[in-house]
Design a protein that fits this description.
Oligomer: single chain
Largest sheet: none
Structural class: mainly alpha
Distance between the termini: 33 Å
Strand content: under 5%
Radius of gyration: 21 Å
Number of strands: 0
Number of helices: 11
């Protein structure tokens, strides 16, 4: 009887991506472990402070603002020279004329000067619209007044503000350790970075909003909020791991294999 064929590396990689490979990649990093620890702390806050569905989802919306600020830092520190550290298909460094390299570097800085203000305006408007949607969908105006923007300082004054600060520390840790310390800034571009937060928002907040609506349907039970936080943590960790794997250079990838 013939033995079944062994899976090809491509199939194994696909299965790894569809399974828990990205989660394991996230957990293998100190930043991933910190992400889990911070979200476990949020679980305790949900239980201790008896947060509502709106409180939890508002906190995750505010986290998007933190991600936007850090993304501006990433765009500002991204390497403007596309040839630095670049290699051809044979693994050899690109041989580029000095004048051409200088022109590309100047173009990289010019792109930053255009894309960073554009991102701030566009992403800020996106988050504002998203915030109005959350207030309307989860009835945040009932206890906080009709104007969401006047309610935000009151929300940040308590435990939610402290929780947001802890989330910001987690993202800053990843920025300094992975993006700067790990050299990810050398393997990306301002254009790529400008688009990245939107995919994260869509993926995470579809999960969060569906989970939040389910929690509201069951009457803000703590159990449903815990499920919501756990689900968001799992998706966040998977995306964190996938992003880290994307920016491994060949030497790091071989070491991690």
């Amino acid at each position: 009887m013939a033995r079944p064929a062994s899976p090809t590396p491509e199939r194994a990689a696909t299965a790894d991506r569809r399974g828990f490979g990205a989660v394991n990649a996230g957990l293998s990093r100190p930043s991933g472990k910190l992400l889990v620890a911070v979200n476990l702390g949020l679980l305790l806050a949900v239980i201790h402070f008896d947060w509502s569905v709106f409180d939890v989802i508002f906190l995750y919306w505010a986290e998007n603002l933190v991600i936007g600020v850090i993304n501006v830092l990433k765009m500002a520190t991204a390497n403007p020279d596309p040839f630095q550290g670049a290699k051809d298909r044979f693994g050899q460094p690109f041989q580029v004329d000095r004048r051409m390299r200088l022109m590309h570097t100047i173009g990289g800085w010019a792109m930053k000067l255009f894309l960073i203000p554009f991102f701030i305006v566009h992403y800020g408007g996106f988050c504002a619209g998203h915030g109005f949607f959350i207030f309307a969908l989860f009835d945040g105006s009932t206890e906080l007044g009709d104007d969401p923007w006047t309610a935000i300082p009151a929300l940040f004054a308590g435990a939610l503000g402290l929780s947001l600060a802890v989330l910001a520390i987690s993202h800053l840790f990843s920025f300094f350790v992975n993006y700067l310390g790990g050299g990810e800034y050398r393997r990306t571009s301002p254009m790529e970075l400008m688009m990245r937060p939107y995919g994260r928002i869509v993926a995470l907040h579809v999960t969060i909003i569906i989970g939040g609506m389910a929690a509201m349907a069951f009457g803000d039970h703590v159990f449903m909020l815990v499920v919501l936080v756990v689900l968001k943590t799992f998706v966040d960790l998977a995306m964190h791991g996938r992003e880290r794997k994307k920016y491994l250079d060949p030497e790091q990838e071989l070491a991690a294999a």
